[in-house]
Amino acid sequence: MQFGIFTVGDVTPDPTTGRTPTERERIKAMVAIALKAEEVGLDVFATGEHHNPPFVPSSPTTMLGYVAARTERLVLSTSTTLITTNDPVKIAEDFAMLQHLADGRVDLMMGRGNTGPVYPWFGKDIREGINLAVENYNLLHRLWREDVVNWEGKFRTPLQGFTSTPRPLDGVAPFVWHGSIRSPEIAEQAAYYGDGFFHNNIFWPADHTKRMIELYRARYAHYGHGTPEQAIVGLGGQVFMRKNSQDAVREFRPYFDEAPVYGHGPSLEDFTAQTPLTVGSPQQVIEKTLAFRDYAGDYQRQLFLMDHAGLPLKTVLEQLDLLGEEVVPVLREEFAKNRPADVPDAPTHASLLASRKGAPAEEGARA
């Protein structure tokens, strides 16, 4: 099972000081957070994609390429790649290039995003969001697997005898997760291709997340990729920790109350009771995260949102120390207990390459 962090790259004032970081400071902080993730033993760093203030990660592959050069083991991913408004040809080429630079330590998460105005900025119609996601991903899937593509669709110009370059590393396409909070069509799409399904697992109650994952698992089996239990599932999560739970609540409350995504809404207590948000001690984080398996089953990837709502970099790095030293080692051990032997690990470049060759992944092979 993989553990890591994901970021949305928001530039938000610190409600305790009133200071807003510059874009440069926020970008550099995201890099520092990625490097810290590897240092403390996490497996994955994922960045979002946004093209509007107050967010900065408009070019995920630029950031991930820079992080790749400064890390050795970390899997580099996205928490959203906008399949609706990006050109599938550009996605195919950008992430294949990143694959080569990072020696295969790359996967990505497709999503439609949650910012309506982005569609017309890129010449698209938000009312076609699902159809864009379906058509664009079908083309992307082919571009990575066929050396020469002839294609015609509704939303972009046709392709005749087209070859995207560079070709995927070792002929193996990056593994794709499809991220969705509420759209069953995206769970269906992930199942159809045998790809992973990622639920951000932050805002919604457990019963909603459970229904989405069960739909994906059932359809994954329907399309003949394996049993429902063998489907590839990822979950998000959101935590804030201190050694003492009362200290965590007291310190995090002003950030929660003013956060752009949920500030001025339900109380911190109500939100933690009704959603996966955990604010407390490392032990409380462990207990609540382990409970995700009760409604998600045995799954492959757990990512945490740690840097948002104006939290200063120093605080985020302290959170990562707690996550890496006190939380993740226990989660690895506990999630491994009673895990059925036929439940697969999270796909990596090495495992996908070995699967294509019909051999087990070699120790020390490319991640």
TrEMBL record:
Keywords, alphabetical: Monooxygenase, Oxidoreductase
Listed SUPFAM superfamilies: Bacterial luciferase-like (SSF51679)
Domain Luciferase-like: 1-295
Pfam families in UniProt: Bac_luciferase
Annotated region described as Disordered, given as residue ranges: 338-367
UniProt superkingdom: Bacteria
InterPro entries reported for this sequence: Bact_Lucif_Oxidored, LLM_FMN-dep_put, Luciferase-like_dom, Luciferase-like_sf
NCBIfam families given in the database record: LLM_CE1758_fam
PANTHER family in alphabetical order: BLR5498 PROTEIN (PTHR30137:SF8), LUCIFERASE-LIKE MONOOXYGENASE (PTHR30137)
Protein name: LLM class flavin-dependent oxidoreductase
Species this chain originates from: Streptomyces rubrogriseus
